[in-house]
Design goal:
Chains A, C: InterPro entries: ScpB_csome_segregation, WH-like_DNA-bd_sf, WH_DNA-bd_sf. The complex is a heterotrimer, with two copies of chain A (241 residues) and one copy of chain B (277 residues). With 241 residues, chain A is of the alpha+beta class. Chain A is built from nine helices and eight strands. Chain A folds into two domains: 85 residues, Winged helix-like DNA-binding domain superfamily/Winged helix DNA-binding domain (Arc Repressor Mutant, subunit A, Orthogonal Bundle), CATH 1.10.10; 122 residues, Arc Repressor Mutant, subunit A (Orthogonal Bundle). In chain A, helix 1 packs across helix 3. In chain B, helix 3 packs across helix 6. Classes of the chains: A alpha+beta (241), B mainly alpha (277).
């Protein structure tokens, strides 16, 4: 134990309740018992149960009040759960109770292609992506891209079937070190970098994405909650809501 | 054996153990023991040693040996079947006794009686120590009996997360390769490297529609036959298409001999069809 | 750790212990986190697990020492169990807790004796156990002990026949309220008296059971899958596996 650590101990104050020394000792003992009982119980412990198990005459209310006070600033709090008492992790520490299991994954070639098409051609529908790539895009690929949070559903195209349009996110810009989406290299830069052949068919072009990817284009409708429900991204609301 | 035991009024070993044999005084007229209750001859010896009510360190090994041999003798008289272990121990103890009683000879080899006794003492002490240890162990504050764990453990939520990595270079390469591949594929399709039957049929139907004169197939297609590579596929497809159109009654076809030019014309009517034949 | 949670984590400098107010606040926060993590679990939490979940650089030792100090006189204590930490109700409150006691399978005298021999003499082979007890050990006895998960096969002795060696588990420590094997009652005296030796010692330099019961001793080999198969603890693998 380090020498300096005692100073940092947040004391459990046993003298919160006035009274004679003997009374305080008894109260402190009852507090310890209640603490152990609630700790070991699989279910919240009711005051009636506590009364049965604490020494006769132990004043349940001040005992539990004291215990709650003791734990109020600790990593674990004493809380009321229904008719009983239970210990629960302090709400502000909920994050330590979740453990991330991060798996490094490389995007598949197909996913990279789709991602690039979404970046350059946004807002773009799935059918349009397929038209550009000449092959079907599996749902898995789009799901993966949505999971990366680099791609999002932007809205719905105002055409028959109202297909969802996809676009990139700020996280995308962040990850790829772009200040704005228009920083994506154009056709000449791609040629210059040797990524595109010098001689491309005359009708070949690389589109310029919209300056502001957050703004919907004229032929897009915003996604509504109903849309999100349909897409399985929102659980349907209770009807009485 | 069960009968013999009954006759001997055996003392249940549990009780012997529980009492630490303390109250089972040596005043008992004779040693009556349920041998089944013992965990082997060493256990029996330990029990006998404890009956001496002295520290094992100061125990009389000779007395102990005699008690054991007496017990075995007794069991034999009662015709108790004893496990071989007990008999082996008895033989060894009889030997030990002889070594202890007969002074060590100058040219004696092996352990002296005292050394053998010390080993026995050691083993008894060690067994007793373990027995005491097990008692101390079970009497500790035990989890789930005296001491308790958190009754309602809170779950640790494991969030499985994938972290994806890709560089801008990966992204652009994928895009460029993909777009380029498609662009070139599109150009090839524009060149129409292969004539499909459907295409040939469309072209034929379009070309022959207004014509009533016999025309060589080659000439119909002349302007489409860009190079020698296309000629074969165009010819094959359009010939197949021709036959199809003839069968459907839209065309008439004639050829004067093998490998001679094939002449086509739009169908003129019933009469001309017969004439063509 | 998730991106979101990073924001909440206060970074730690390893030498934060005796220092500025800010450092003390950080230590107090780490104490709360460790408290929440260990309190939430019914099983001991290893220091390795704690290290993973506390802010990077949080000094585990002073954090746990402080937490142990905080709880030393409470109804619930922080105890060390082998490589881990756990909260357990205070032993002096056993009388209040009897209601929670779960009916435990009673071990036979023979099983208890074998357990003690394994605990005090580990690593120990079956033949050595039998030598101490002067009687054969029924397979059922060892099975029962293995079933309780207090005893495990540790490895194989590097002697002819390569007999399996037995030892105790962390669960054993937890169940009997031991920090480590060296805390076994009376082990020092027994060692001093030479009673933990296989043979009557001519000299009294008797080696102690290793402090780390998980580490194989010089004359032990680890158990392999083949060994476990042989011992009937693993079903033989399919050959094409």
């Amino acid at each position: 134990m380090s020498e300096g650590s005692k100073a940092k101990v947040i004391p459990f104050s046993a003298d919160a309740v006035p009274g004679s020394t003997a009374e305080r000792v008894h109260l402190a003992e009852a507090v310890r018992m209640a603490e152990a009982i609630v700790f070991a119980s699989a279910e919240p412990v009711s005051e009636a149960q506590l009364e049965q198990r604490l020494p006769a005459g132990a004043p349940i209310e001040p005992v539990m009040a004291e215990l709650q006070q003791i734990y109020s600033r600790r990593g674990v709090n004493l809380v009321r759960v229904g008719p009983g008492w239970a210990f629960r992790t302090a709400p502000d520490l909920a994050f330590v109770m979740t453990r991330d299991a991060v798996q490094q994954k490389k995007l598949s070639r197909a996913a990279l292609e789709v991602l690039a098409i979404i970046a350059y051609h946004q807002p773009v529908t799935r059918a349009e992506i397929e038209d550009i790539r000449g092959v079907e895009t599996s749902k898995g690929t789009l799901d993966t891209l949505l999971e990366t949070e680099w791609v999002r559903m932007r809205g719905r195209r105002r055409t028959p079937g109202r297909p969802v349009t996809y676009g990139t996110t700020d996280r995308f810009l962040d990850h790829f070190g772009l200040e704005e989406i228009r920083d994506l290299p154009g056709i000449e830069e791609l040629k210059g970098a040797g990524l595109l052949a010098q001689r491309m068919p005359s009708n070949f072009s690389v589109p310029m994405p919209p300056a502001d990817t957050d703004e919907l284009t004229a032929d897009e409708d915003p996604l509504t909650d109903i849309d999100l429900e349909e897409l399985g991204l929102l659980t349907p609301r209770a009807t009485d809501d | 054996m069960a009968e013999a035991e009954k006759a001997a009024k055996p003392i249940p070993m549990d009780r012997l153990w529980a009492d630490q044999a303390e109250e089972r005084a040596t005043s008992d007229p004779e040693l009556v023991v349920d041998v089944d209750g013992f965990e082997g001859p060493l256990d029996l010896l330990l029990h006998l040693a404890r009956n001496q009510k002295v520290d094992l360190a100061r125990i009389s090994i000779l007395a102990l040996v005699e008690q054991y041999l007496e017990f075995i003798e007794h069991a034999r008289r009662l015709r108790l079947e004893l496990a071989a272990d007990y008999l082996v121990m008895a033989a060894w103890l009889a030997y030990l006794k002889s070594r202890l009683l007969i002074p060590k000879q100058a040219r004696d080899e092996g352990e002296s009686g005292e050394e053998m006794a010390a080993v026995l003492q050691f083993r008894l002490k060690r067994l007793e120590a373990m027995r005491d240890a097990s008692a101390r162990l079970v009497n500790r504050n035990r989890l789930g009996r005296d001491v308790f764990a958190r009754g309602a453990p809170e779950l640790v939520i494991v969030e499985k997360r994938n972290r994806y990595s890709a560089s801008l270079y990966d992204l652009l390469t994928a895009y460029a390769i993909q777009r380029q591949r498609r662009a070139i594929t599109n150009v090839r399709i524009a060149k129409r490297g292969v004539w499909s039957l459907k295409e040939a049929r469309e072209i034929l139907a379009r070309l022959i529609g207004p014509t009533t004169d016999w025309t060589a197939l080659d000439r119909f297609l002349a302007k489409y036959l860009a190079g020698p590579e296309e000629r074969k596929t165009a010819l094959a497809s359009s010939f197949a298409a021709t036959l199809e159109l003839v069968r459907e009654g839209m065309l008439e076809v004639q050829q004067t001999g093998a490998f001679a030019p094939i002449y086509l014309r739009g169908r003129q009517g019933q009469r001309s069809t017969e004439a063509a034949k």
